[in-house]
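Last lecture ended with a question: if I hand you only a sequence, what can you say about the shape of the protein? Today we answer it with a concrete record. The protein is Zinc finger CCCH domain-containing protein 64. Below, first the input exactly as provided, then the predicted structure, then a couple of comments.
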Amino acid sequence: MVVLPVSYHIAGTKGAYYAREPYCNVNAVHVTRFLGLASVGNKEKQKFLHALSPTPSSAMAAAEISAKPPNTTLSPYTLVDQLDRPKETTKRASDIELDSQYWRYDVSNKRQKHGNGDTNKVCFKFISSGTCPRGEKCNFPHDADAREQFLRGVCLDFIIKGKCEKGPDCNFKHSLQDDGENHSRKRPGSSNTNANRSKECWFCLSSPNVESHLVTSIGENFYCALAKGPLVQDHVLIIPVEHMPNTLSLPADSETELGKFQNSLKVYYKNQGKEAVFFEWISIRGTHANLQAVPVPSSKAAVLKNIFTLAAEKLGFEFVTKKFSNNSEGRKWLRTQFDKNFSCFYVELPEGSILLHLIEENEKFPAQFGREVVAGLLNVADRADWRNCTIGKDEETKLAENFKKRFQVFDPSQ
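The predicted structure:
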């Protein structure tokens, strides 16, 4: 049996049976299938019962959840929204339908630097993913400059609309970046580059954008902070103090301090009947590194390796796997495998294994892969995206203070 990655919208108020093709959602990766059920005992003998055998999203890999059945259509709700707008009444229905899927924002006058001056829209699909299913048939510009700005960490709303409604809550840059801001075009270690980027980086302690209320301990080379939008309680980030794109590029002697933080978190979690899983997504376009530490109940820790391996198979790749007797040896091996010209993902498991995947240049790899896998294991798939888990600053501050009190006796920076 093929498991279709769909959710269901079932209604019965109209008293008629209707089964629609699955359709895309605007703000979610999965597709939805609509079912209308007839009244019980209706004269037309239309279906009033429909049996389903759904698979929970927590048991599905990210690739399965985002897969699209061959007969998937565009969202009917977006189409209705477009039809309700007076300014779209002169368009053909087919044009509106295509626009609703690929083109999301009007471009303000502030965005005249990018795109064709004869149009007021740009291709959202191309900017966000680098590709467009419609190719040369696309009615909107595939703006390479806007795509480059997006890769440099500029807010997508700012790029397209010239403004961002999130304001200080947005974690992305709100100014267009010139070539000097692109780390791949500057000499590594350039002090000007690091200084400029640190001003806007939300992980640099010297930045006005840093969420200092989440910081729990500070060492010489690393500091710890509670994750924003945590997957579970005590979800911690180990972050380099220096503005570095990954933890594997720091001087080798900094590994000692990193090891102390990792070991302290392991003991802290152990006292709660949990094990620590560490993972890091390293992108060649990364800005400031963060090594994620997530506590997993000891009863589920044994299946972590199988779960990650299965998720990798679903995405079409295999991990390079090695087991080490201690954390230090494992990190040394990671540094020998790391190539700064490639993105990669690795996970350090409680039983000593390290799973590593070097990502090819054109390979599509979900940035939230590690979080999605652990979320599935813990049956909290709805928390796979940190943006779904954000809370107010007051509550964040309270959580951080409580964690500091509990962790104080283990904190290597004390």
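Comments.
1. DSSP finds 13 helices and twelve strands in the chain.
2. The longest helix spans residues 255-270.
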